[in-house]
Amino acid sequence: MKLSIRKFIPVVSLAMVGMPLVASAASAGDITGESGSFAAIVASGFWLAFLGFYFAAVITFFAARKFGKSTLGTIFSYFFMGAGTFFAIALFQTLGGDFFGISDPSMDVWWHIMFYMAFASYFYGLKLLVGLGSADQSSDQSMRIGAEKIWSIVTVAVFLIIFIFAKALDPLVNVYTSSVLYSAGLHHFLAFIIAGFLASYLLGVKKNFGQIGRAIANPMILSVGVLALQHFWELLNESWQVIIVTSAVGESVEKIFLTIAAIGIGYASWRLNSFARAS
Amino acid sequence: MHEKEQYTALISEIIKKQSLILGPEIAILKARSVPGLMVDNDGKVTGVGENPKETLQNLVDQYVELSGQIVKNALGSIFAKYPELEINK
Question: Which one of A62, A65, A66, A72 would you mutate to disrupt binding with B, by most B Cβ within 10 Å of its Cβ?
Answer without folding.
Answer: A72
